[in-house]
Amino acid sequence: MDKELGKILIIDDDEDVLIAAKLLLKKHAKEVIIEKNPKKIPFLMNNGTYDVILLDMNFSKDITSGKEGFYWLEQILDADPQAVVILITAFGDVEMAVKALKEGATDFVLKPWQNEKLIGTLSAAIKLKESYKEVDKLKSAKKQLEDDINKPFKDIIGDSPAMKNVFSIIDKVAGTDANVLILGENGTGKELVARAIHQRSLRKDNVFVGVDMGAITETLFESELFGHKKGAFTDAKEDRAGRFEIATGGSLFLDEIGNLSMPLQSKLLSVLQGRQVTRIGSNKAVDIDIRLVCATNMPVYDMVAENTFRQDLLYRINTVELHLPPLRERQDDVNLLAEHFVKVYCDKYRKPHKKVASSTMKKLSKYPWPGNIRELQHAIERAIIMSEGNILMPDDFFFLVQKTDSQTEAVDNLNLDDVEKNIILKAVNKHSGNISKAAKELGLTRASLYRRLEKHGL
Q1: pLDDT category of residue 404 using cuts at 50, 70 and 90
Q2: Nearest-angstrom CA–CA distance, 210 and 10
Q3: What are phi and psi of 288, to 5 degrees?
Q4: Which one, 5, 57, 124, 223, has the greatest CB density within 10 A?
Q5: 3-state secondary structure of 233
Q6: Are 202 and 178 in contact (CB under 8 A)?
Q7: Residue 3: CB partners within 8 Å, gap ≥ 6?
């Protein structure tokens, strides 16, 4: 006989009732746990999950009112808002049954029960529990899919030899479940490549979940990635699945993985090795089934040598490595990208389609683009907004005029904004657009440098 009733918890202060229920249900359930003392409910809820909970309404302190049952029902639902609870009592009536359902109970049975009716009630409750799980998963997946659909510029644009090599690697690796590590400077399109791998994989009909590891603080790392139970910490207002759980069946993209501290690297490695996560506040491990894609602009091999990145984690995530070239190494693609962004932003800002003058294209092609595609994208957007004519001229890209070292170091212009702008340009160019290295040399955080880049229109 199939054990279709799953894991059942029965709480009743009548030992005879517990034994009778267990003898009946163990033939139909995978596991039956009985408990006489309701005060152990918090412990039981914290250390396990149950498909159905049978809860007596009346314990020794209160023989007939059912108040104790309602109290413990509230405690159970606080611990697990999706718990399926069936209340049992020898003194039930319609009014109490209605109140129980309003309080969150799934159903209501009377003692002594009819065996077939009890099994039927539990079977229906199991189906309800499964539907709760499915709805919860669909809601999380729907949100992620909506976020995915709303991501701009999903397609990778490029016809240069360097990009043809990238496309070849994507085609080879996409159909496997091999872990992929994408290496490349900021702004080169690492997330787009990760999405392309997912879209060409066997998991393409499932969710793609992206996480910016550089934006997650140490304190939120476990909550964001592994999830938490309600009440696990001050702001845990409800149960929440982590990104690993949400991504199960699909792909998980961990961007900026090189920014993780050593302790967080250890936690991540443990999950990748065990293929299980445990939510904060829970002792129950949850199996995960993901395709992992990671990315970083950091020199991870140098970091391994410097003992700032775990070698065993690197081996775990880089079954296949994909090196994404900077825009200065694929200048043949600048015209294609420029035309693409012109169309995108003309449509976005409801402006007549603008053309790019040949002299402008020549200038765009010669510029080294330290900020890569992201810098080109922002440059086109600003030009579309600010230009008055229907043709984008070189002057519409005033920020592209590069100062010579002598001009940069000249002391005749002491305007603080100009000095700051020139120093930032010099640092970014020196490090070939690597924002992390430029920020470090300038004594700034990456976020502070990004704000200054925006401030100066760089």
Answers
A1: very low
A2: 41
A3: -125, 150
A4: 57
A5: coil
A6: no
A7: 28, 29, 30
Compute the radius of gyration of the chain from its Cα atoms. Answer: 30
Rounded CA gap, 328 and 26, in Å?
A: 68
Contact call for residues 108 and 97 (beta carbons, < 8 A): yes
The model's pTM: 0.60
Task: Name the token pair of 155.
Answer: 């397609």
Phi, psi dihedral angles at 181 (to 5 degrees): -115, 120
Roughly how many angstroms between the first and final C-alpha of the chain, as a whole number?
69
Q: Distance between CA atoms of 312 and 251, rounded to whole angstroms?
A: 21
Q: Is the pLDDT of residue 313 over 90?
A: yes
> Residue 208 in 3-state DSSP?
strand
Q: What is the C-alpha to C-alpha distance for residues 20 and 91, in angstroms, rounded to an integer?
A: 19
Spatial contact of 92 and 123, defined as CB atoms under 8 Å apart: no
- Give the list of residues 6+ apart from residue 308 with CB closer than 8 angstroms, or none: 262
For residue range 227-264, list pLDDT tens digits in order. 988 888 888 888 889 999 999 999 999 999 999 999 99
Report which secondary-structure segment, H or E, holds 28. none
Q: Token digits for 393? A: 């001229």
Per the DSSP assignment, residues forming a β-bridge with 285 are 278
- Cβ atoms of 376 and 338 within 8 Å: the answer is yes
Name the band, by pLDDT with cuts 50, 70 and 90, for residue 405. very low
Tell me the C-alpha to C-alpha distance, in Å, between residue 379 and each of 50, 181, 354.
Answer: 56, 29, 14
The per-type count for the chain, helices as H runs and strands as E runs, is 19, 16
Phi, psi (degrees; rounded to nearest 5) at 191? -65, -35
Long-range contacts of range 334-337, CB-CB < 8 Å, 24 or more positions apart? Answer: 334/361, 334/364, 334/365, 334/369, 334/376, 335/361, 335/364, 335/365, 336/157, 336/158, 336/159, 337/157, 337/158, 337/373, 337/376, 337/377
Gap between the Cα atoms of 88 and 79, Å rounded = 20
Element (H, E) at 150: none
